TrEMBL record:
<keyword id="KW-0808">Transferase</keyword>
<dbReference type="InterPro" id="IPR049704">
    <property type="entry name" value="Aminotrans_3_PPA_site"/>
</dbReference>
<comment type="similarity">
    <text>Belongs to the class-III pyridoxal-phosphate-dependent aminotransferase family. BioA subfamily.</text>
</comment>
<feature type="binding site">
    <location>
        <position position="416"/>
    </location>
    <ligand>
        <name>substrate</name>
    </ligand>
</feature>
<keyword id="KW-0032">Aminotransferase</keyword>
<comment type="subunit">
    <text>Homodimer.</text>
</comment>
<comment type="function">
    <text>Catalyzes the transfer of the alpha-amino group from S-adenosyl-L-methionine (SAM) to 7-keto-8-aminopelargonic acid (KAPA) to form 7,8-diaminopelargonic acid (DAPA). It is the only aminotransferase known to utilize SAM as an amino donor.</text>
</comment>
<feature type="binding site">
    <location>
        <begin position="333"/>
        <end position="334"/>
    </location>
    <ligand>
        <name>pyridoxal 5'-phosphate</name>
    </ligand>
</feature>
<feature type="binding site">
    <location>
        <position position="169"/>
    </location>
    <ligand>
        <name>substrate</name>
    </ligand>
</feature>
<feature type="site" description="Participates in the substrate recognition with KAPA and in a stacking interaction with the adenine ring of SAM">
    <location>
        <position position="41"/>
    </location>
</feature>
<feature type="binding site">
    <location>
        <position position="76"/>
    </location>
    <ligand>
        <name>substrate</name>
    </ligand>
</feature>
<dbReference type="InterPro" id="IPR005814">
    <property type="entry name" value="Aminotrans_3"/>
</dbReference>
<comment type="pathway">
    <text>Cofactor biosynthesis; biotin biosynthesis; 7,8-diaminononanoate from 8-amino-7-oxononanoate (SAM route): step 1/1.</text>
</comment>
<feature type="binding site">
    <location>
        <position position="299"/>
    </location>
    <ligand>
        <name>substrate</name>
    </ligand>
</feature>
<dbReference type="InterPro" id="IPR005815">
    <property type="entry name" value="BioA"/>
</dbReference>
<dbReference type="InterPro" id="IPR015421">
    <property type="entry name" value="PyrdxlP-dep_Trfase_major"/>
</dbReference>
<keyword id="KW-0949">S-adenosyl-L-methionine</keyword>
Length: 449
C-alpha cells in the first residue's frame, strides 16, 4: 500500500518554496518527489523515502541528513573520475563563458571538432567518422539506422533485420529495445509492437573459458540461415551489462567479425557501458583484437557530467550511405554535439589518458577479487565474477533490493542491486581503503538479499 499523499495545501506551500531561491528541507523534497516525479524502473507511488543527495565530491555522495556514502556505482557507470573533478569543472566553466549550446545543423564549433579528433585517436582504426548523439539509447538508434540505411543505399531493402544474442541490453528507445532480450529482458512487455529481429542464445559464460565449438556452429548456422534478411550483427562485447552482467570469452567476437565479413554485414558493438577502460582495455573489443564497423560509446564519455554519446563508423560505411537515395544519415538530435558536453568530454578523455588508468583498473580488479571472495560462501550466492572495475555477486534468487540497499547504506556505501545481482562499478579514483569498504558492503548486502 502506497503512503498517503500530502495535503494539497502542503504541496502548494512546497511548490511555492521550490520556486524561491532558498534551500528546500528534506521533508519538502520528499513530498514533492512523491507527488510529481517518476523514477526509472519504479512505480509512480512509493512507500519509502529515497536518500536525498545534497552534494558530491571525490567518490562520495553527501546526503541531506548529513551522511556521506561511497558511490559504488559511478552514477550508473558514468562518473569514472568521481565528482567535482577540478579539470572537468574548469572545462564546464570555461565553455559556459563562450556558449552552452548552438545548433549543429549547418554549423560547427571547436569543442565538437576537438572531441571528434580525440575519439578517432582513441578508437581502433579505421573508425574515423563520428556522429555525436544525446545519450546511449540514441547512439544505438543511430547505429541501427546506419546499418539499415547502408543496406537501403546498396539496393537491399530486404536486409532490414538484426542478429544479436539473448541477454543483451541496448537502451530504452524503440529501436534499442528491439535488440534487447525479448523474453527475460526489461522490455519484454513491448515485444508485440517491436520489430522482430533474430536472436541466438547468449554466449557461454567465462572470459577465460575456451570457445564452445558447438555454440560457434550455432552462430554460424543462424547467420547463414538469415543472411539474406540481415543488415548487421549487434552485441555488447565481452560484458553484457544491464541485461545480467554476464561475461563471455572475447573469441566469440572474432567469430562474429568473420561472419560479418563473409555475409557482408556490419558488426555493431555497443560499448556504452564498457568503453573508456571499464573492462581493463580502453574498449572491450580490444580484448579480442576486433574492430567493428560501427562503435557506440556513452556513459563515461563526459565523466558523468552531462549526457552525451557518440557513434563511430568507418569511412567506407559513411560513403556507402552518402551514395544512397537520401544522401545523408537520417538523424539529427536537437542537442547534437552540445558544446558544453563536448568540452567536458574532451577534458574527461584528457584526464583519463593523463593518469595510469590501466593500473587503476587493474588495482581495483585485484581488490574486488580479494575482498569479494567471502561472498562466495554466503547462502544463496550462485556466482562471483570480476572483470576490470566490475564486481558481480549473483544470487540464486531475486534480490531483496530494499534490504540489500539498506545493508550497504548502513556500511556507508551506495549500490543499486537489480534482478539477482549485487554488483559494483566504482570510480577509477576509488582508493584501496574505500574499495575494501565497498566490498564489505556488497557482502553484507548479499547476505540479506
Amino acid at each position: 500500500m502506497a503512503a498517503s499523499p500530502s495535503s494539497p495545501a502542503l504541496l502548494d506551500a512546497d511548490r511555492a518554496a521550490a520556486r524561491g531561491d532558498g534551500p528546500l528541507d528534506p521533508a519538502a523534497i520528499d513530498r514533492l518527489d512523491r507527488a510529481h516525479l517518476w523514477h526509472p524502473y519504479a512505480p509512480p507511488e512509493r512507500d519509502a523515502a529515497l536518500p536525498v543527495v545534497a552534494a558530491a565530491q571525490g567518490v562520495r555522495l553527501t546526503l541531506a541528513d548529513g551522511r556521506t556514502v561511497i558511490d559504488g556505482m559511478s552514477s550508473w557507470w558514468a562518473a569514472i573520475h568521481g565528482y567535482r573533478v577540478p579539470q572537468l569543472d574548469a572545462a564546464a566553466r570555461g565553455q559556459l563563458d563562450r556558449m552552452a549550446h548552438v545548433m549543429f545543423g549547418g554549423l560547427t564549433h571547436e569543442p565538437a571538432v576537438r572531441l571528434a579528433a580525440r575519439l578517432v585517436d582513441l578508437a581502433p582504426d579505421p573508425l574515423r567518422r563520428v556522429f555525436l548523439a544525446d545519450s546511449g539509447s540514441v547512439a544505438m538508434e543511430v547505429a541501427i539506422k546506419v546499418a539499415l540505411q547502408r543496406q537501403l543505399s546498396r539496393g537491399r531493402p530486404g536486409r532490414h533485420r538484426l542478429l544479436t544474442w539473448r541477454g543483451g541490453y541496448h537502451g530504452d528507445t524503440f529501436g534499442a529495445m528491439a535488440v534487447c532480450d525479448p523474453v527475460g529482458g526489461m522490455h519484454h512487455l513491448f515485444a508485440p509492437v517491436l520489430p522482430e529481429h533474430v536472436f541466438v542464445d547468449a554466449p557461454p559464460p567465462g572470459v577465460d573459458a575456451p570457445l564452445d565449438e558447438g555454440y560457434v556452429s550455432t552462430l554460424r548456422a543462424a547467420v547463414a540461415r538469415h543472411a539474406d534478411e540481415l543488415a548487421a550483427i549487434v552485441v555488447e562485447p565481452v560484458v553484457q551489462g544491464a541485461g545480467g552482467m554476464r561475461f563471455h570469452a572475447p573469441g566469440y567476437l572474432r567469430v562474429l567479425r568473420e561472419l560479418c565479413d563473409e555475409h557482408d554485414l556490419l558488426l555493431v558493438l555497443d560499448e556504452i557501458a564498457t568503453g573508456f577502460g571499464r573492462t581493463g582495455a580502453l574498449f572491450a573489443c580490444e580484448h579480442a583484437g576486433v574492430v567493428p564497423d560501427v562503435l557506440a560509446v556513452g556513459k563515461a564519455l563526459t565523466g558523468g557530467y552531462c549526457t552525451m554519446a557518440a557513434v563511430l563508423c568507418t569511412d567506407r560505411v559513411a560513403e556507402e550511405i552518402g551514395r544512397g537515395e537520401a544522401g545523408v544519415l537520417m538523424h539529427g538530435p536537437t542537442f547534437m554535439a552540445n558544446p558544453l558536453a563536448a568540452s567536458i568530454a574532451c577534458a574527461s578523455i584528457d584526464l583519463l589518458l593523463e593518469r595510469d588508468w590501466a593500473a587503476d583498473v587493474a588495482r581495483i580488479a585485484a581488490g574486488l577479487r580479494a575482498a569479494l571472495e567471502p561472498a562466495r560462501a554466503l547462502p544463496g550466492v550462485a556466482d562471483l565474477r570480476v572483470l576490470g572495475a566490475i564486481g558481480v555477486v549473483q544470487l540464486d534468487h531475486p534480490v531483496d533490493v530494499a534490504a540489500a540497499t539498506a545493508a550497504a547504506l548502513e556500511r556507508g556505501v551506495w549500490i543499486r542491486p537489480f534482478r539477482d545481482l549485487v554488483y559494483v562499478m566504482p570510480p577509477y579514483a576509488t582508493d584501496d581503503e574505500d574499495l575494501a569498504t565497498i566490498c564489505a558492503a556488497v557482502c553484507a548486502a548479499a547476505a540479506v538479499a
